Amino acid sequence: MGATIFVGACLQGVGGIGFAMLAAPLAAMFFPQLVPGPLLAMGGCLSLLAALREREAIAWRLTGTALLGRTLGGLIGVLAIAWLRPQWLAVVFSLSILLAVALSALGWRVRPSAGNLAIAGTASGFMATLTSAGAPPFAIVMQHMSPAAMRATVGCILGGGAVLSLAMLAGAGRFGIADLTLSALLAPFLLAGFAVSSRLKARVSAVAVRRLLLALCAAGAIAVLVRVVLQG
């Protein structure tokens, strides 16, 4: 699992997303004790490290709007789980992400406005509650920002969201000392991957980062679809 954490941290350090989409499915299958708390803690730390590394590029107004949307989306997701079949909702959202990736590849542009970030935040909170993969909506909306601004702003949003989620898990008795210990044991792999990304990010062009984002979004959506199929 350490190798997965390393690669996921490196991917997210360069592209802004990718850690949870790579690590969560593998952890759920082979290391369920890491889900959700320890992975969420590591992902939150990684996101905050990315935000701090390029803090001068953070779009603070967009961050606040996105976090409000993410909170709302999380609440809607909780209600949806209680009243609807989450598997089908996950399928709908995953197909929507794949459609957005295809349109983006064909030249469709989404402006990273406050309104669009609020919508992306709501979709992210909803998807994260249902599937643990909440980053793709942000990546779709922010793909045309500069790589530094995208990484820092997404990092700030995801880091803030992780703090809120961990607080709720702790309040529900789902995150404690044992989870912190697991996170700490894997932290060296996380930090090593992030350190490597710091060397790589300057060598990766904006076009390459955008392509990486779209590829990660598509991979995350496909992973959710595969998980739904395997779960029946």
TrEMBL record:
Record membrane topology: Multi-pass membrane protein
Keyword list (alphabetical) reads: Cell membrane, Membrane, Transmembrane, Transmembrane helix, Transport
Query: In which compartments does the protein localize?
Result: Cell membrane
Q: Which GO terms describe its cellular component?
A: plasma membrane
Q: Which residues cross the membrane?
A: 6-27, 34-52, 58-81, 88-108, 114-140, 152-171, 177-200, 212-230
Keyword Oxidoreductase on this protein? no
Origin superkingdom: Bacteria
The family classification in the record reads: Belongs to the 4-toluene sulfonate uptake permease (TSUP) (TC 2.A.102) family.
* Xref: PANTHER family: MEMBRANE TRANSPORTER PROTEIN, TRANSMEMBRANE PROTEIN YFCA
Official protein name in the record: Probable membrane transporter protein
